[in-house]
Fold this protein.
Amino acid sequence: MFNSTSSLLTALAQLLGARAVLTDADDCAPYFKGARYGDGSALAVLRPDTHEQVVEIVRLCAEHSQAIVLQGANTGLVAASTPDASGRLMVLSLDRLKRHIEIDAVNRSVTVDAGVSLQDLNEALAPHGLFFPIDLGANPSIGGMIAANTGGARLIKYGDVRQNLLGLRAVLMQPAGQELNLLSALRKNNTGPDLKQLFVGSSGAYGIMTRAVLQVHRLPKQSATALVVPRDQAAVLELLQVLERDCGEFLSAFEGISGAALQAVLQHIPGISNPFAPEGVPEYCVLVELNSTSDPALSGIDLDSLLMSCLENLFGDVVENAVIGRAEDLWRIRHAISEALRHQGKMIAFDISMPRSRMAQFRDAGLALIADNYPWMRVMDFGHWGDGGCHFNMVWPASASIAYSSDVAQEIRTRIYDLVVNEFEGSFSAEHGVGPYNLDFYRRYTSDAARQLSGGIQNLLDPHSLLGLTRFS
Ligand SMILES: Cc1cc2nc3c(=O)[nH]c(=O)nc-3n(C[C@H](O)[C@H](O)[C@H](O)COP(=O)(O)OP(=O)(O)OC[C@H]3O[C@@H](n4cnc5c(N)ncnc54)[C@H](O)[C@@H]3O)c2cc1C
C-alpha cells in the first residue's frame, strides 16, 4: 500500500519511464487547458503507450485512491478531459497509445488503438479506398470520439460514432485494472446486452478504452457541393425533403449557415471571399453535399448534373440562389465558423438538437426570445439541419452597451435550453456529451429514473469516484 503521492509517482515512473510521467509545469500546461472550457492543474500527466501500462496505472492509482481524468486529443467541448482546480487529480493521457492500426478491407473494419488520431486513421485507410466518415473541424482521438459519441457534418449519411462502433476493449476501475475485451468485428452479435454501448457518450466515466473496432466506409469517387439560399426558414425543410426524395442515398451533408455566421467568416478568416459576390451575403444559406462511390463512367450517374437539375427545379420557389463550387472552398467556410465567431466577442455556444421538423419554428422562437430580452446579443447560428443538430451560438459583442455578465450568460443558456427541451422535444447536448460543463443542465433535464440508472452503473464501475469529473447521479 502506498502512503504518499511521491511513492506513487516513483512507481509510475518505474512503470512508464520518467519521460512518460510529466510533472514540470511547462510540459503539463497543454494537458491542463481544454479546447474551449476546462482549465485546472494536476499532480502529474501520465502517458502510457501500451494497454498493459494502462492496466498497471489503474491498479496503482486505485491502490493509492488516486483519482484520474482521461484525456485523448483534448478537443472536447464540455471540460471533461481536463483536471479541475483542486490540483489533486492526475491526467491519464492516451496520446501515446497509438501503435496499432489493423485494417480488414474485406470486412470494411479497422482495429485501432484509442490514442490514434482521426487524421492518422484516415491516412492509413485511404490507400485501401476506405475512410472513417465522422467529419469535423478538429482532429480528435478515437477513444475521445467514442466517449463523446462524436457526430459531425456527415451524420445524415454515415451516422455517428455509435453507429460505426463494432467492438472495443476497456480497462475497468472496478475491479481495478480488469480488462473488458469486447473487440469483436461483427456486425451481428446478439449474445446478451451490447456492453460496448455503455462506453459510448460516457464522457470517460465508465472505464478507459484502449482499443476499438470501427466499421469504415468506401471513399466516395465523386461528390457535388453547393451553397443554396432558401426562400425562407420554412423552405430549408422543403429543400431537405426534396433532396432526400430526389437524391436519396447520395445526400451526405445538409448544413445550415446563418448570414451573421457567414459574415463573421468573411470578416475574420483570411483567404475566404463571399461566394455569392457580387450579390451580398444572404440571410441564410445551406451547404449541400452529395457523394457517391459509384464511378460516373460505369453508373451513368453524374452528381453535379443531378444536383444542378434538382436545384433548377426549385428555383424561384424553394430556392432563391445557389452557387455550385469547389468542395474544399465551400467546406472551408463551414469549418471556419467556430473560429470566426470567437473574434466577434464573448461567445455563448449551444450544441442542441431536436426533431428536424421543429427546426424552423425553434429558430424563429429562439431569435425572438433573444431579440425581445437581450437585444444587444448577436445570434450567429449554424447547424446540422440534416440530423436536427443546431449550434445556436451567439456573441456578446465587446461594443455592447451592457457589459458582459456571466450570470446573464447563464440565464440565456438556461432559457434557450428550457425552450429546446420543454417546448421543442429537444436535447441540451446533441453531440458534445455531458462533462462538468453541462452537469447542471444534465441534472435539470434528465429524469430521476434515468439518472439513478446511469449513476448506479457508475457506482458499480467506479465506487470510489476515481474516474473523471462527470458524476451521472
Ligand atoms: C474546432 C472544433 C470542432 C468540433 N466539431 C465537432 C463536431 O462537429 N461534432 C462533434 O461531435 N464534436 C466536435 N468537436 C468536439 C470534439 O472534437 C469531440 O468531442 C471529440 O470527439 C473529442 O475527442 P478527443 O480525443 O479530443 O477527446 P478529449 O477531449 O480528450 O476527451 C473527451 C472525453 O473523452 C474521454 N476520453 C478520452 N479518451 C478516452 C479513452 N481512451 N477512454 C475513455 N474515455 C476517454 C475524456 O475523459 C473526455 O470525457 C469539435 C471540437 C473542436 C475543437
Remarks:
- The chain has 15 helices and 21 strands.
- The chain has a mean pLDDT of 95.
